[in-house]
Amino acid sequence: MARIIDGDKMNIVGDSVRKYRIMRKMSQQKLSNQLELLGVYVCRGSVSRIEDKSRTVTDIEIYAIAKVLNVEITDLFDVFDG
Can you list the domains of the chain with their CATH numbers? Predict the structure, then answer.
C-alpha cells in the first residue's frame, strides 16, 4: 500500500499556508507571533519548514494557523488549488 506522505513531503498544507499568509500580507515572523498569542509555539523557521513541506504539522497547529489566517481548516487542505 502506498504511503499518503512520501519521504520528501511531510505535510500537504504547506502551499496553502504560504498562499494565505501572503494574501494576508503577513510575514512568517508575524504568523509565528500570532500563533504564539494563541499559545501555539511555532518559530519563524518552523513556519518556513511547514511551507516547504519539510516539517509535519499537528492538528492543533493546523487549527491555530487557520484561525490566524482567518480561513476554514478545509481551505488549508485544498491541495488542488495551486
Answer: 14-76 (1.10.260.40)
Angle of helix 44-51 relative to helix 14-23, nearest 10 degrees?
Answer: 120
- Residues belonging to the chain: 82
The model's pTM: 0.88
What are the Cα distances from residue 82, in Å, to 29, 33, 42, 79?
A: 24, 26, 24, 7
C-alpha cell at 7: 519521504
CB-based contacts of 60, cutoff 8 Å, min separation 6: 40
Cell of 74: 478545509
What 3-state class would DSSP assign to 41? coil
Higher pLDDT: 71 or 7? It is 71
Give the burial class of 69: count Cβ atoms within 10 A of its Cβ; 0-12 exposed, 13-18 middle, 19 or more buried: buried
